[in-house]
Fold:
Amino acid sequence: MSTDIKAFQDYYADDYSHCYGCGRLNEYGLQIKSYWDGDESVCRILPKNYYSGGKADILYGGLIASLMDCHGAGTAAAAKAREQNIEMVAGAMPRFVTASLKVDYLVPTPVNIEIELRGTVKEIKGKKVTVGVTLSADEKICARGELIMIQLPEPQ
Amino acid sequence: MSTDIKAFQDYYADDYSHCYGCGRLNEYGLQIKSYWDGDESVCRILPKNYYSGGKADILYGGLIASLMDCHGAGTAAAAKAREQNIEMVAGAMPRFVTASLKVDYLVPTPVNIEIELRGTVKEIKGKKVTVGVTLSADEKICARGELIMIQLPEPQ
Structure:
């Protein structure tokens, strides 16, 4: 990803930028970044190796759910912004919260490797957006998720 | 909880104790602890306030999924151990991995408050255990989860 292209999360309003997973104002968090890649959204991250599961060489399932949650929220927001032709300036990105999250863990995900999340918008219905997400390591899909996201009111 | 009662996670084998959410050997992790309370399992935790969602005063949805994941895995393990009358000594606790995780976020969960997870065993079928989990703050249920957990082979 070129560093001069801003991520979805860079356009969230300050008030909505404190998320542990994707908030640019959360100095303790993961600060993940999501971008369009055609009609799919993509996020790449090399998680610190202490985000392990029970075994030290396997990625933590809770982190997988967390990454899907944030990437899914970002994808829903960017899809809504694109549908409504919202001009992308600071604070202009809509903000979504998760109504439900479903993750199927297919095979163990290794640590110490860059992982890739890819999102697809399955449905936009008013303030409700359904997003599918895959998580891959070394080009192998390790987990699949589906999220139902709900758009929040504009910050006052 | 009395501190002289060991938690489910204290009986995991060392090799399976590196989890970011519940591993007693993961010094960077949350080290959650789960116990029986009759037929339900319970875990209480006051998460650090940087585990926030987009807004700084709301708990991170990814953390909620993570806590449910670990508490669900512990509950499945303890239920299996109880079913099989396994004597609880160091390393004796069976270890489960998550096949699927579903979380419904009902209302926002506040930060800076102790939260309580309660687990119920819905079904034990061989190596597959289905667990339901609620997450409450101030005695109000904020999220519900359901997990399908699969028992791992014994560590060699």
In short: The first strand of chain B starts at residue 35 and ends at 37. Chain B has one domain: 8-151. Chain B has a mean pLDDT of 95.
